[in-house]
Amino acid sequence: MVTDEVGQGGTTAGGPGSSAGQQGRTGQNLVQLITPAGERVSHPEYDPWVQDMSDEQLCSLYEDLVVTRRIDTEATALQRQGELGLWPPMLGQEASQIGSARALRDDDFVFPTYRDNGVAYCRGVKLTDILRVWRGNASAGWDPYTVNLGTPQIIIGSQTLHATGYAMGIQNDGADSAAIAYLGDGATSQGDVNEAMVFAASFQVPVVFFCQNNHWAISEPVRLQSHVQIADRPLGFGIPSMRVDGNDVLAVMAATRVALDRARRGGGPTFIEAVTYRMGPHTTADDPTRYRDANELEDWAQKDPIRRVKALLERKGLLTPELETAVQQKADAVARDMRTGCTTMPDPEPLDVFKHVYSTPHSWLDRQQDHYSRYLDSFGDPAGAASEEGARR
Amino acid sequence: MTQLTFARAINSGLRRSLENDAKVVLMGEDIGTLGGVFRVTDGLQKDFGKHRVIDTPLAESGIVGTAVGLAYRGYRPVVEIQFDGFVYPAFDQIVCQVAKMHYRTKGAVKMPITIRIPFGGGIGSPEFHSESPEAYFAHTPGLRVISPSSPQDAHTMIQQAIACDDPVLFFEPKRRYHDKGDVDESLDPGAALSFEKARVVADGRDVTLVAYGPLVKTARDVALAAADEGMSVEVIDLRSLAPVDFATVEASVRKTGRLVIAHEAVQSGGLGAEIAASITERCFYYLESAPVRVTGFDVPYPYSKLEMHHLPGLDRILDGVDRALGRPNSLSGLEG
Ligand SMILES: Cc1ncc(C[n+]2csc(CCOP(=O)(O)OP(=O)(O)O)c2C)c(N)n1
Ligand SMILES: [Mg+2]
Predict the structure, then answer these.
(1) Could you tell me the residue ranges of all domains in chain A?
(2) In order of start, what are the domains of chain B with their CATH numbers?
(3) How far apart are the CA of B52 and the centre of ligand 1, in A?
(4) Which residue among the candidates B129, B155, B263, B310 is catalytic per the annotation?
């Protein structure tokens, strides 16, 4: 079954020269396997890709979704309480992140953005590690090679090239793994993303571009970035694409499996547009009431990714009190661990400023470090020595 | 006089430029409906329309590249780069096109483009939100680079930058956006102190302390603290980073015989080096001691829990003043 109703573009028009009409409607139909009401609908092309999903696995996806949402709300709370400097909520995008990340193999390599913390959870990143960057304790929370997950990219779009290059390496090595780049709708405007598609198509490398079209790039509606449906743009580069209901965890999983399978078989790159919605602010520093309509939010609340899986489990008679309790307990435990890990994270040492800039000693920097450590030694309290107001007066 | 925040003072300057010249257009990410992530352009799209205050697609090279085209067509684009660390995708357009068009065309094509960049640290942000990339641009012939340090200067200098026929990189000290100051909004920018001129913001006899942008406030605090310890520090707000108003710095150093330069940007190859070398060339025999630089270290801007160690604060600059004056300091006993 196919529906296009979740594919509405943003609400406001672009700048000069924009005909500001509807975002192109001529594109592909939206792949959906679970309706917002929780009905499992069949789709001849995509059903086979999730046929192996047992009841148990469906329950496990449900748990992932609930836990991920809990991670997100707990992190937002930690930010509000001053424990984190900033947090980019993924609220509403859980199915996109879980469905795609759970389709991956351990030896696939992921290049995520700042918002893909649900993906990080699925890759096995420790909860405390997810928070390190946002607490200001590190530039990156984990060693990318331990979980085959790059560090969250802040420069919009940059990681799509990295994934493509990584996939060139996979291809040269003759391996059957794949690289996947996560990106946003806004990112599709960047030169880097377009260059990544050129390279990926040219060399037919095993890369998947997974675009979460959450309809907004901070305050800018998706229509400002793309005059046609995003899924239509890769076609011009010679890259096949799919447009999938990003709030439907099964549809996302099916589409990602299609793409990964193509990549592993030497079939080259694929682009997936997961149509979803950013239910929260851009980050905890943002105030979306300045630019978007509350009605839009209400519409999307009806399409919530968790509610529909819950409804599906109910229909199937799988939503037992035991399951609910188990999932709830898991979410509680995760939130508790996360909070403890966050608030007990040791502060960095002052001289950490000089660490890891180079892999071998560097004379300029060594001299600066030496001078700064002498400077700190001239103070009783290094924290005071480094405050803006100073401690000396 | 009105009390305005730094951000509001720029807003008011932008408004005047939009009013006075129909060719002025503002472009950037989130500058319209949202009014910019720092609200510097708040309300301007509402008042001047979507064709003059343009929310652009998310692509910095695209923004600056199309600004070049608009300038070709006779417009005066004012571009906002959302944060310092996001100017790099536009680096090619700025360095190869914006900076060189006038030269290439023997002056036939002017590039009166103003590129506004909130810069510097101290606000506890993640990576790429606290950088000080001004030296790259000061190193690029064809660009003018300026940075205001007070609401009044922000208000007049943005108007002067927009009126200038050359491209101007306008670095806004983001950690001072909320600082308030008196602003005379009726001041004629044409009659006000040119953005090319430095300003002595505190008189002193013993040592010249040069700063710009966010560190001017810190430098003034240093002068006050130094006075408590019996040292008289003259503070110069550079305002223009390319070209630097060396005449003003030189006159001060001839008087004090000592020079300290402070900036947040990393040290090596930075503006401090340029100023130290130029002043040494110009008035070597007036110098009583080697110029001292107090700057960010040669490291990527660190994560926020460490940023106060990277940023030159009051005490580190005071320590530099001690060094220039030959007083006991953290490097006493070390050579050079
Ligand atoms: C090169 C660059 N320019 C600007 C920004 C500032 N910025 C951060 S997130 C964002 C919007 C990104 O939108 P999208 O790609 O749709 O991802 P989403 O935030 O919706 O997940 C912008 C403009 C940035 N991080 N990098
Ligand atoms: Mg988006």
Answers:
(1) 2-343, 350-392
(2) 2-183 (3.40.50.970), 199-325 (3.40.50.920)
(3) 23
(4) B129
What is the 3-state secondary structure of chain A? Answer: CECCHHHCCCCCCCCCCCCCCCCCCCCCCCECCECCCCCECCCCCCHHHHCCCCHHHHHHHHHHHHHHHHHHHHHHHHHHCCCCCCCCCCCCCHHHHHHHHCCCCCCCEEECECCCHHHHHHHCCCHHHHHHHHHCCCCCCCCHHHHCECCCECCCCHHHHHHHHHHHHHHHHCCCCCEEEEEECHHHHCHHHHHHHHHHHHHCCCEEEEEEECCEECCEEHHHHCCCCHHHHHHHCCCCEEEEECCCHHHHHHHHHHHHHHHHCCCCCEEEEEECCCCCCCCCCCCHHHCCCHHHHHHHHCCCHHHHHHHHHHHCCCCCHHHHHHHHHHHHHHHHHHHHHHHCCCCCCHHHHHCCCCCCCCHHHHHHHHHHHHHHHCCCCHHHHCCCCCCCC
In Å, how far is A358's CA from the nearest CA of chain B?
9
For B138-169, write each residue's pLDDT tens digit: 999 999 999 999 999 999 999 999 999 999 99
Question: Chain B residue with minimal CA distance to A225?
Answer: B57
State in words which class domain A2-343 has: alpha beta
ipTM score here?
A: 0.96
Cβ-Cβ contacts under 8 Å, A134 against chain B: 126
- Condensed to tens digits (0 to 9), the pLDDT of residues B2-31 reads 999 999 999 999 999 999 999 999 999 999
A129 in contact with B, Cβ within 8 Å? no
